[in-house]
Design goal:
The N and C termini lie far apart (about 55 Å). The protein folds into two domains: about 40 residues, Arc Repressor Mutant, subunit A (Orthogonal Bundle), CATH 1.10.10; about 130 residues, Tetracycline Repressor, domain 2, CATH 1.10.357. Helix 4 packs antiparallel against helix 5, helix 4 runs parallel beside helix 8 and helix 9 runs antiparallel to helix 10. The chain has about 190 residues and is an all-alpha fold. It has ten helices and no strands. The longest helix is centred in the middle third of the chain and has 24 residues.
Length: about 190
Amino acid sequence: MSSSTPQRRGNTRQRIQDVALDLFAEQGYEKTSLREIAERLEVTKAALYYHFKTKEEILVSIFEDQTRPIDEVIEWARAQPATLETKQEMLRRYSNAMVAGAQLYRFMQENQATMRELSIGETVRRRLFTMVELLLKRDAPLTDQVRCVSALFTLHAGMIFLQQVEGDPEETRQAALEVAIDLITQAHHA
């Protein structure tokens, strides 16, 4: 199999998710059929239906599993005092969570129209707005609010757009994290 995702043996649901995400990334969500997913898995369509009835069910399950760490970051940040240290740690944790779901984030970036049409698009939007709220300093000047929002999206740039930059992807992620932390620190000290 020419998959970029390592296959997890022994768990059919996870194997379906892995293969589906590979196909969605290769040819797009809209152009991938349940039949193709079943063929790649070398199972019948009926066997696939046992676990998932639709492509959307598969995508939603991938999304829920791979973005759970982001909900945990949000939960953690809500339980902490709104200090600079908390915000810096929130960015570190978010960056780590994004690495775990890198292929999904690339898929979401490349399939924005599909994401808007599916229920998970609204979930992504709500999470991002919640994270921005947690990063913002109350009554901050507009430039500092922009810095807070930019810190979050710097991590997204590191994950999606800066992967085209020559060099080690981990170094790129660390550089984006450093810039994000600088932005949040500037916003907090202004």
